[in-house]
Each structure stands twice: as structure tokens, then as C-alpha cells.
Design brief:
Blueprint (H helix, E strand, L loop, with lengths): L4 H22 L5 E6 L3 E6 L4 H7 L18 E6 L14 H5 L2 E3 L9 E4 L7 H4 L4
Parallel strand pairs: 1-5
Antiparallel strand pairs: 1-2, 3-4, 3-5
Amino acid sequence: MVWWYPVLVLVVVATVVLTVRAIRGKQRHPGYVRIRVNGERVLDVPTGGALLHALAREGISLPTTCGGTGSCAWCKCKVTRGGGRITDQEQPYFSRTQVEDHWRLACQVEVLRDMEVEVPAGLLHPKQRSGTA
């Protein structure tokens, strides 16, 4: 047997292992989705639960007095992609035009897929407006 065969096998195996690790490192964890906020900030959050709580965990706090039950309507935002259909709970708080413009209550939007969200700048803390939060 030629002396360099074991070295060659070791190099090939190490290359394959490092390549697989690099590819896996670039993938998101299963059960997570990506939320783009105001076209700037990108969040990787777990699926399930309300958008209001997913944003809060990432430092974006929308106002609420009802704790997420959908009765105060303070957590209004636009969900331009991935939010699904507006719920019966939300409907009374929006005009037909607002519904067509994708306005939603963040506490009633379930995080199930990648989303694009527009949060009114006036609702954000100054640090959050610049994307540094």
C-alpha cells in the first residue's frame, strides 16, 4: 500500500465534513421563520405564537393594554407578506381600505411562515427606529 493513501482519505473526509458543517451553518433552524421589519431589520424567530410576542422578544415592543387578547387594538401594524387572512376578532377595528392595505393587530397574527411587517415609526422607541435595538 502506498504511504499517502491514508493521508488522502483523511483529507477527503475532513473536506466533506467541513463542507457539510458550513452548509448547515448557513441554514436556519427548523421551526424558525424570518420576519423583515420595516424593510430593514431581519429577525429569525420560532414559529407559533403571536407576532406581538415574537417582536417583543426581539426588542420591538408595540403598545398594548389588553395583553394580547385583541380588545384594545393598540398593536396595529401592516403585515404585507405572510400574515394570512384577517381574523374575525380584528375585523371591527379596521375599515375596508385598511384591510386591503394589510393592516392587522399584531396580537392576532400567528407566526407560521416568513413575513414582512411594517410597524409605524411613531410606535417604536427611538433606538428601534434606527434599527439599532
